[in-house]
């Protein structure tokens, strides 16, 4: 028992500090999450099986329609392409940030953060200007003689992929940088001393050690791409609609909450499934690395 002495020198016990036990300390947080997050999602999902008539008709219509299946395919194709391209570009950038001098890396980080803080709508409109037939990119390609006619880079999946990759790059560079920065350089030096060349050091040492960060960043980018709305809507057009645009159309234009809820549930199930896969294969690695 802790004690202290008063002015007369007598030893007196300190008062005991009662600690919160059970769920009492987290009830306000759980209530907040339940009211503002769980309840709205649950209500929306209930409407998917109750409107316009009770049953699974909305899900059957989603699965049975070739138009809706094409939208699902567009969503997963674009999300996959954006994830792969972002990973291919983001890994070298993260590696360069991890090994470059501190002042230069600070400048690069400032540029990355500035791009994230810039308004998303403004960045998307900027890409619309750059990618149009009379835009800077087509003019540069034609000026260098690489093409004779302007390329069609907007109102298609190409424009959506380019715009979303630019937006998603910081979200994969930052987690990758954090993982690569923690790798001991002596590990690569030991591999080189054992006879490994640069390619072997990359594929057999660096990539396996950075795999948890790659998985976390790729999952984040893929899931965010599945639910993106502004960039696909402006750069893709109606012919290349993605799932988030379909949900918005159901709710805002058609006022069909049942179909909108069904599409939202499909998106939620895919997201949770991907998260479960990531935990299954990379969760243990993350815990061991702590």
TrEMBL record:
GO CC terms: plasma membrane
Subcellular location: Cell membrane
Predominant subcellular localization, coarse grouping: membrane
Superkingdom as given in the UniProt entry: Bacteria
InterPro entries: MetI-like, MetI-like_sf
Keyword list, A-Z: Cell membrane, Membrane, Transmembrane, Transmembrane helix, Transport
Spans traversing the lipid bilayer: 21-46, 71-95, 107-131, 151-177, 205-230, 250-277
Record GO biological process: transmembrane transport
Membrane protein topology class: Multi-pass membrane protein
Transferase in keyword set: no
Domain ABC transmembrane type-1, residue spans: 72-278
The keyword Membrane is assigned to this record: yes
Family recorded in the similarity comment: Belongs to the binding-protein-dependent transport system permease family. CysTW subfamily.
Protein name as catalogued: ABC transporter permease
Organism (species): Rhizobium sophoriradicis
């Amino acid at each position: 028992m802790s004690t202290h002495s008063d002015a007369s020198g007598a030893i007196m016990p300190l008062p005991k500090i009662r600690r919160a036990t059970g769920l009492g300390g987290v009830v306000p947080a759980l209530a907040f999450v339940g009211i503002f997050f769980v309840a709205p999602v649950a209500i929306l999902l209930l409407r998917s099986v109750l409107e316009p008539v009770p049953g699974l008709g909305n899900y059957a219509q989603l699965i049975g329609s070739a138009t809706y299946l094409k939208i699902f395919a567009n969503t997963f194709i674009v999300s996959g392409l954006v994830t792969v391209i972002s990973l291919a570009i983001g890994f070298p950038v993260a590696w360069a940030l991890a090994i470059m001098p501190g002042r230069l890396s600070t400048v690069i980080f400032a540029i990355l953060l500035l791009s994230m803080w810039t308004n998303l709508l403004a960045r998307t409109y900027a890409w619309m200007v750059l990618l149009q037939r009379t835009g800077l990119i087509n003019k540069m390609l034609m000026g260098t003689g690489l093409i004779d006619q302007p390329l069609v880079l907007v109102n298609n999946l190409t424009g959506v992929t380019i715009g979303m990759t630019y937006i998603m790059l910081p979200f994969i560079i930052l987690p990758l940088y954090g993982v690569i920065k923690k790798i001991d350089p002596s590990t690569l030096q030991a591999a080189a001393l054992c006879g490994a060349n640069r390619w072997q050091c990359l594929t057999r040492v660096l990539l396996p050690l950075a795999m948890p960060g790659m998985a976390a960043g790729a999952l984040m980018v893929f899931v965010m791409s599945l639910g993106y709305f502004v960039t696909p809507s402006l750069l893709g057009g109606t012919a290349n609609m993605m799932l988030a645009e379909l949900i918005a159309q159901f709710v805002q234009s058609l006022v069909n909450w049942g179909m909108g809820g069904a599409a939202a549930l499909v998106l939620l199930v895919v997201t949770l499934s991907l998260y479960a896969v990531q935990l299954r294969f990379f969760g243990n690695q993350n815990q061991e690395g702590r």
